[in-house]
Amino acid sequence: MDIKVNVREAPGDCYIVELSGEIDVYTSPKVKDAIGTLIDRGVYHLVINLEKVRYIDSTGLGVLIGGLKRVREHGGSVNLVCTNPQIKKIFDITGLVKIFGIFESEDAAMKSLV
Amino acid sequence: MNQAVEQSFPEFVELRIPSRAEWVALARLAAATIANRLRFSIEEIEDVKLAVAEACTAVIQYDGHGEFIELSCEAQGDSLRIRVRDGGRQAALSGVKERIGFEEARVAGLGVFLIRTLMDEVSYDVHPKNGTELLMVKRLAGRPD
Fold it and tell me: Does B97 reside within a domain?
């Protein structure tokens, strides 16, 4: 069990954080570090790609919420790319669909960043 | 080998893991394996995995947790009964929201919410000296064979 984090720069002062694997209490610190490092560098517009994430729990959700909260303090935003129905379901039942923009592709997520 | 459990006898699995983050994946794998022995759908198996992981995570994030987490899964008939025991001196599974920081409490609250949403029945049994036992039940949804 592991999580892979791939960070890429995208047009428009935006960075894409592509995650692959499982995000749980063991692996979420690695995700938190990656997102935190970007924010510390002044990157406040993020697309987090969850297409290759097979599993996420509340600690993973907490990391995403924490990242969103931090970038919003600087007028930034976080959009998610999520196509896995089980992952989408977790965002649905927790109500997090209302605070994250969730998109089917990176292009759509990037275009929607404010 | 993926036959559903016969209705007439139970299958019972017990697992004892160190109460550390790196072992939670094993707990959810065990729960998923026995859920797969019933006729749960893939979505229901994922629900069970997440609920077990959230229960274990609640224990690990609680300061007073014990050295081990004990997990037992019993498949019988149309239901899966899962017990998670924290073994701590105090009630880790029931007290998590009151005992950690605000941000963590929001996440821990999310975990408890997920458990209650994804499982059909959830109850706690608090033992002042032996920690807390969380019982979760998932039943097969009524659908044609």
Answer: yes
- What's the pLDDT score for residue B145? 44
pLDDT tens per residue, range B14-70: 999 999 999 999 999 999 999 998 889 999 999 999 999 999 998 888 766 778 999
| C-beta atoms of A25 and B107 within 8 A | no
Please tell me the distance from the alpha carbon of residue A3 to that of residue A55, in angstroms, as a whole number: 10
Distances (CA, A) of A4 to A112, B29, B41, B85: 25, 20, 28, 31
Its ipTM equals 0.90
B55 in a structural domain:
yes
Q: Name the residue of chain A whose CA is nearest to B111's CA.
A: A58
CATH code: domain of residue B129:
3.30.565.10
Cβ <8 Å between A58 and B46? no
Q: Are A58 and B110 in contact (CB under 8 A)?
A: yes
**Looking at the 3D structure of chain B, how many domains does it have?**
1
Cα angle: B31, vertex B81, B91; to 5 degrees: 90
